[in-house]
Amino acid sequence: MSAHVTELLALAAAGSLGREEARRVEEHVRECAACAAEAAEWRRLAEGLARMPSLRPSRVLVSRTVEAVEERLAERSERAWNRAALGFAVAFAWTMAVVSWLLLDLLTGELALRLDRPVGPTAAWYAAYVIAGWLTAGVAAALLGRRTPEEGRIA
């Protein structure tokens, strides 16, 4: 007599076994009365479940679900576009800050040579201006970032 196959009986009743396992279960059930009785119970249960009506979602539920999924996909696409635009804006701003710094340095350096005056105070004020601008932009981005999840919870 082969080893009991009780762990496979439910799968056999559901028709979820491969050929080799199904053949092994059939052979064992022919030889073992205890497993044959349990297999019959599983078959009755599977047949009863197959006779039960299957629930179908209403058209309204399906349309609302499709709408919600499309809305989420549109939001995801918009967020991706916003991230790309923000990345471009940050790269552009940094480039402009560096270029303007070089231009200011060039202009004030030339002016300093012509006027025989120190450039240090002008450069310090420009650096303070750039840093204040970046800090303000960072605070605004953080506040906008916090506002977005709060809006999502309300909706």
Number of strands: 0
Question: Based on the structure, what is the oligomeric state of the protein chains?
Answer: single chain
Biggest β-sheet, characterized?
A: none
Number of helix segments?
Answer: 5
**Backbone structural class:** mainly alpha
Number of domains as seen in the coordinates: 2
Low-confidence stretches: none
* Backbone CA Rg: 37 Å
- Which sequence of SSEs, written as H and E, runs from N to C? HHHHH
Helix content: over 70%
Distance between the termini: 65 Å
Large-scale geometry? rod-shaped
Molecular structure report:
- This protein is mostly helical.
- The protein is 86% helix and 0% strand.
- The protein has two domains: 6-51, no CATH class; 59-154, no CATH class.
- It has helices spanning 6-14, 19-31, 33-51, 59-115, 120-154.
- The chain is rod-shaped, with a radius of gyration of 37 Å.
- The relative contact order is 0.05.
- The mean pLDDT is 80.
Write the layout of secondary structure elements.
Elements (H helix, E strand, L loop, with lengths): L5 H9 L4 H13 L1 H19 L7 H57 L4 H35 L1
Helix pairs in contact: 1-3, 2-3, 4-5
Structure, briefly:
The protein has helices spanning 6-14, 19-31, 33-51, 59-115, 120-154. It has 155 residues and is mainly alpha-helical.
